[in-house]
TrEMBL record:
Signal peptide: none annotated. This is Protein ZIP4 homolog. SUPFAM superfamilies: TPR-like. One of its GO terms (biological process) is regulation of synaptonemal complex assembly. InterPro entries: Spo22/ZIP4, TPR-like_helical_dom_sf. It comes from Trapa natans (Water chestnut). It comes from the Eukaryota.
Length: 511
């Protein structure tokens, strides 16, 4: 007995080598009968701990085996925990994972031991084992077991552990969504707690979901990004207390970016299924309602906490436009663009973006494109310092859209655009309007006279040649072209009379 107490003293002072030596010697005096069975098992267990402390894992394993031989009931959770720790220190994670399942069959097992196992695994950096322990523990909450550790803490710990390794995003999403489901099932106050503690937990899950959504969006994993951002909007929704605040802004941002990610995923997975389109429509509806409440709040005061950046307004408009296109709803496309054009967040750059989007892609809407680009041009020209380079680009696009979409059915519409270009350039100093764009306007206007001349429509031809000449006279470097144009016009005037008497018509030179 004295040697046992001496060994125990050495063990408490962490002198494991001396403690093991004394325990081994004292074991020589313990009888091998049934009465002393528990004492022998305990001694072997302490010896196991001593050799664990000395990092002599094989010796520790030998003693835990001896303890089990003595302790005939193979259901004692303590022995399985010792085995579990030995496997962890040997870095044998497969055996440690198996031990978790065996431990659950012990007669004296309680869920707390899974938490202890998780702590041991974390200490040994065996994160997959820790995840397995905690995921097993979660199952006991759903079955109604009383466990001292709050369920939300287990979920948060699980997610935190999984973030230590790369490529765990699907697993992280799984547990975050499961946490949200449990909160919906048992109630937010029961799952998260009350007061400021609950708000911190909600914010943690919301921010974690948001951060993963943004990260995956940057790496172009759009499908997974959309899932994270959708669940982020749900967590931020739990934080809203009926007033428009910064959480309302985060709901709106999360929804808009989730929709953008879903639409972007089409480039990787192909067209969205009907069920996905329906989901996007629902998300757009939610985002639209929050956006409306935020806009109303912003009109009432200048609270920076509820300020939604302009890029989210244009992103919402672009998303809506694309979804309406999938539904072949051109009227709604027109309305959403007109609504944005009348908003305070609208800029010429955004209108240009909308116009270019509307005239491209598999489902172009030329009416929307013309509206957006025409509005863009008007705003550019009404600016105190107009950007004539962008104005020239917009003018070219307007002419191209009108020509290709309306063709020859509305020649006057195209002509009016060229005349508008002339009026823009005529009052400018040399070099303010891009020379290349000016040359393009002059030559394309001139070339439009070619077909009317061949058809003998000299009035129409003269109209186009005249505007071509007018534009050429305003563009530096086109003097030679202009002289050739004037020579042709003079020659044409002389030959028109001859042509009317039945002789050969003149042939136009295309520039």
């Amino acid at each position: 007995m004295g040697s046992g107490r001496c060994a125990a003293d050495h063990f408490r002072s962490k002198d494991y080598e001396t403690s093991a030596e004394v325990f081994e010697k004292s074991m020589l005096y313990v009888p091998h009968d049934m009465e002393n069975r528990v004492l022998r098992a305990k001694s072997f267990r302490v010896l196991c701990l001593c050799y664990l402390g000395l990092a002599q894992l094989d010796r520790a394993n030998e003693y835990i085996d001896e303890a089990e031989k003595v302790f005939l009931k193979m259901s004692n959770r303590f022995y399985f925990l010792r085995w579990f720790k030995i496997h962890l220190q040997k870095e044998d994670q497969n055996c440690a994972l198996s031990q978790i399942q065996v431990m659950k069959t012990c007669l004296d097992f309680t869920p707390d031991f899974l938490l202890l196992a998780a702590h041991e695994a974390i200490a040994c950096h065996a994160f997959p084992v820790a995840v397995a322990s905690l995921s097993n523990l979660i199952g006991f909450y759903a079955s109604g077991k009383t466990i001292p550790t709050p369920e939300i803490v287990v979920f948060r710990t699980l997610v935190t552990i999984l973030t230590n390794d790369q490529c765990n995003e699907p697993e992280i999403l799984k547990y975050i969504k499961e946490a949200h489901s449990r909160a919906s099932e048992v109630g937010s106050s029961c799952f998260f707690g009350e007061g400021e503690v609950a708000r911190r937990e909600m914010k943690w899950f919301a921010a974690t979901s948001w951060n993963f959504g943004i990260k995956l969006g940057k790496t172009k994993d759009y499908a997974l990004s959309a899932e994270f951002l959708r669940v982020a909007s749900e967590f931020y929704g739990l934080l809203v207390d009926g007033q428009v605040d910064e959480n309302s802004v985060m709901i709106c941002k999360s929804l808009i970016l989730a929709i953008s990610a879903m639409l972007a995923s089409e480039n990787q997975k192909g067209e969205l299924l009907d069920i996905d389109v329906k989901l996007v429509v629902e998300l757009l509806d939610r985002a639209g309602k929050v956006l409306k409440s935020i806009s109303s709040r912003m009109q009432l005061d200048d609270d920076q906490n509820v300020n939604l950046e302009p890029e989210f307004h244009i992103l919402y408009t672009l998303n809506s436009y694309e979804i309406y296109g999938k539904m072949n709803n051109k009227k709604s496309q027109q309305l959403i663009v007109e609504k944005f054009a009348s908003s305070k967040t609208c800029t010429p750059a955004y209108l240009l973006q909308l116009g270019l989007t509307a005239c491209q892609g598999p489902r172009p809407n030329h009416e929307v494109a013309f509206f957006a680009l025409n509005q863009c041009l008007s705003e550019l020209l009404s600016s105190p310092l107009p950007d004539y380079t962008t104005a020239a680009l917009v003018m070219r696009k307007l002419i191209t859209i009108t020509s290709t979409h309306k063709g020859d059915t509305d020649d006057d519409a195209v002509y009016n655009l060229y005349k508008q270009a002339y009026r823009i350039i005529v009052g400018l100093k040399g070099g303010e309007f891009p020379a290349e764009e000016g040359k393009w306007l002059a030559t394309t206007a001139w070339n439009r006279a070619a077909i009317p001349i061949r058809l003998g429509h000299f009035d129409s031809a003269n109209k186009w040649m005249k505007v071509g000449l007018e534009l050429a006279g305003l563009v530096p470097g086109m003097e030679t072209y202009k002289a050739c144009m004037e020579d042709f016009v003079n020659g044409l005037d002389k030959k028109v009379g001859v042509h009317k008497r039945g002789e050969n018509q003149p042939q136009m030179t295309v520039v």
